[in-house]
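User: I'm putting together a teaching handout on how multi-component assemblies are represented. Below are the sequence lines for each component of a complex, exactly as they appear in our records. Could you produce the 3D structure of the whole assembly as structure tokens, so the students can see both representations side by side? Please keep the chain order the same as the input.
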Amino acid sequence: MKMDHSLPLEYSTDQNKLNILGFWIFLGAEIMLFATLFASYFTLANRTGNGPTGAEIFEITPVLIETFLLLTSSFTIGLGIHAMRLGKQKAMLTFFSVTLLLGLAFLGVEIYEFVHYVHVGAGLQTSAFTSILLTTLGTHGAHVTLGLFWGLFIILQIKKRGLTPQTANKSFIFSLYWHFLDVVWIFIFSFIYLKGMM
Amino acid sequence: MKGKWIFSSVLITIAAILSGCEPLLVLDPKGPQAERQAQDIMLSIGIMSFIVLAVFALLIFVLIKYRASKQSPDYEPPHMEGNIWVEAICVGIPVLIVAYLSFVSVQSNYIVEATPEKYEDQEPLVVYASSSNWKWHFSYPEEEIETVNYLYIPTNRPLEFKLYSYGPITSFWIPQLGGQKYAMSDMVTTLHLAADVPGEFVGRNANFSGQGFAENTFDVTAMSQKDFDEWVDEVKDTADPLTEEKFDELLEPGHLGRMTFTGTHLDFMPPPDHDHGSSDSEEGNEHQNHSEQDKDSDHSNH
Amino acid sequence: MEFFERFAVPHPSPAIYASMVAIGLVVIAIIAGLTYFKKWGYLWREWLTTVDHKRIGIMYLISALIMLFRGGVDAVMMRAQLSAPENTLLDAQHYNEIFTTHGVVMIIFMAMPFIFALMNIVVPLQIGARDVAFPRLNALSFWLFFMGAMLFNISFVVGGSPDAGWTSYFPLAGNDFSTSVGTNYYMLAIQISGIGSLMTGINMITTILRMRAPGMTLMKMPMFTWSTFIANVIIVFAFPVLTVALAMGTMDRLFGTQFFTMENGGMDMLWANLFWVWGHPEVYILILPAFGIYSEVISTFSRKNLYGYKSMVASMVVISLMSFLVWVHHFFTMGQGALTNSIFSITTMAIAVPTGVKIFNWLLTMYKGKITITTPMLYSLLFIPLFTLGGVTGVMLAMSAADYQYHNTMFLVAHFHNVIIPGVVFAMLAGLTYYWPKMFGFMLNEKIGKWTAWLLSIGFLLAFMPMYITGLDGQARRMYTYSEATGFGTLNMISFVGAIIMAVGFALIVYNVYYSTRYASRDISSDPWDARTLEWSTHNPVPEYNFAIVPEVKSSQALWDAKKEGHNLFKGKYEEIHMPNNSGAPFLMSVVFFIWGFAMIFSLWIPAIIATIGIFAFMAHRSFEQDHGHHISVKEIEETETKMRGAK
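Assistant: Of course. Below is the structure of the complete assembly, with chains in the same order as your input.
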């Protein structure tokens, strides 16, 4: 396999470049997926039937905590990739682990949030609004969950095999995924929670 | 230009012959909306014929002239990259056609969504047409009568059909009076029609709604306003009142024949709210128009 | 045995029982045959685990042809039922099931795999590549499609067929009105297949952007590759919308959510909107590769370069962008009012303009050309007038006020078949005939091929032209019968005759394959059509690695110019070639998807959860997997090339 040493490790082989481009295209598809969910949310947001409205159930505190956790995790994974570029495996693994822990905490808060919603009568089956709200939040949360496992697998592979073109490529692609989820969260935070609470 | 009218008349003749020498319902309008639509259809057939003929002619020309068998064996076709002016014409003419048809089409859109101009000075007759698997209920709120699967209407008067459904999305369609519109369960849509002449017309649900869909038809009879008033009086004298129990029975899935009642179901089972959050000004106008006639008890929320 | 009651068909009929028996017998026959001829190993090694784009393409092709048969039988049954008023061949329920499956099968399980077949076989060869960017993903795409198709196809004998139309509008498709599992099959089978399509989108775009031979800039790519590229961009942006819509539909039916219900804020119109935001781009996904095939064929058999290359590319780009801006025309009558309808009326008419440009460019390609009429060319020549008819009726339908009369009538049915059959189906058959020698090393019979094209065209006209008339006379679509008084009888009978003629045409295709396999000479050149693009510079059959040496390209007709000027496309020495290994994972993972889908359809939650875990297990395995493929040595390349050059 021909390696181009003038490029960062994750771009250094032909297959690596293909993988990264392919993943960007996948992110394009994911943008459409979430865009569809958001469009459906805006369409159904006021259709609360006999159930509660967003203003009635959203709580600012858990949402702020979730935002802080996820945004910080984006920062730490950025540091992780930077460490990877400098060839510092141990630092990279530390930052990645912190990222995943922050992600896990985010999920924890989100699960608490969902339990709360069900408790106050805003379940998946209550109304069109609750259905789309929980589906949108849930889709994002499911993506985060998948990311936790994926990230863990990458950490294990780097521990076992070190920083190779393949592991570097995977790590970089994972970071793209993680940043993407963070961007989606910013939209969720702004257009679902903040807008709903105003 | 004459060519395309001849061409379309030939088409219509063929169509008429094949369908049994009677004009096609859509092209046999009996009301102003249907007439406008039929005009649009004929216009588009005419213009499109021009395009079709152009393509056919070019194809036949190149096939005749440039077939390999007609040419010398060592003829090598030239390399032709393209020509900006040719492309400009191939884009320009269709753009002009589309622009013209768009102009006509937009005009027609506003015409079919409003009271027909020739009857604008009159009070519209409002009929609530609701579908339940697989029949139509026609409620006349002002006249306080209701029919099932048949519609009597006065001629020369605007008709406002308020459409909705107790189940799957259906489509209220009387081809000779005008186009169709969907009837849905969470909102009321409005269809503006009118009949210019008395007669019997076909009506049907045009949107697939399950097993009994094919038979989901209704008869329409248009008569003079005087005859219509007489009929309303006759119904009030002779028909049974529509009770809630009876109406629940009627809503059961199945097919029914023609039925007639005094009173309407709008009192005890009002139609769904209008679509809140719709920014289309049409909806706003509709609110004003029928607020006097609508028996919807939730109307105060608007 | 109560557990097994759920798998019973709610509305059986003799035909359905006969099909159950037939399916059972065929499955047994296949298993018995494979065992008797000891072909299990061969099947696994050469086909089930292949990641070779050429093999995958052939599997897509076989699947498409089998599905064409099923969809076609559905069509003939429908036409037979409607051939006379108040006919009793099919009752309403069965008719409804049949038109639903006809639509889904033809679009999702026939047309899509057909275009994927040609994309897979042709594009890597056309751009001088050795495979697609992600060969394993490519195999997964195929097997997901296949499992989705299998799942959908057993519905009518296990649990009940969907019967709410291929558009599956709510609330009709909801639990209130579609009580059997049929609509669950619809939601899940299409979902599984759709994931495969999305993966192909990612694969093809990456391949075309990054794996072109040196010298092949974007504006030197063959037109079929361009059309594939643009169609796959549409796939990437359109399919996720369907994914969400199907997921919501599934959740409404299985988990009691309120997306499209009649109470609690549910909005049936949302389904229609989401479906068609995907649905309209979908038809452009189908037609653009078809246009690409026509560009190749018309150019080759006019012995002339494609006229207006730049505008052909530009028109497809414009079409792809606009395809996302027209969806409301599928439901002008849904009450959104004159302003919305006007906007979408204009965008819909506008999209006819770039399409028209292409027709004129094809005609101008033939102008001053040297036209030979082979079977692929015949399909293209028939396409031009027939598709133009269909296209102009599209402009007619776009006038929304008039559409209030056309909507949901046979006029509409006539229009879309008028664009899909001459547009997509003829292109696929032209492409099949054109690329057959490249796939299999012999030619399909010309005479039978031309008979097929003519029969299909005449059958098509007889079947569908009457529908324009009956639509204007009040015959709605999806009606299982009509009364004598309507007068629709004569024209519907003519339609039926047309359908029979088309059936004969399709039967001839099968006969052609048989006849040619048996009698056609295998001693043909690797460039039997004297064509213009790189795929024809490979040997017959194409070796695993496609090109021994990566070609260098100077123009958009690399092969033609090389032939004319006598220069060598393949300069340099042989080098070791790296190829991916076969893998059983795509096939096995797809089997688990099938199980998952089946379990969800029948609300079997434990198996569904286990299958879900299984799917993630495969993904985890893939993450840890280190498979670096294998190398083909220079010696092996030399041997293969010498052998093939001899055969050439």
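A couple of points students might notice: Chain A has a mean pLDDT of 96. Residues 9-197 of chain A form a domain with the Four Helix Bundle (Hemerythrin (Met), subunit A) fold (CATH 1.20.120.80).
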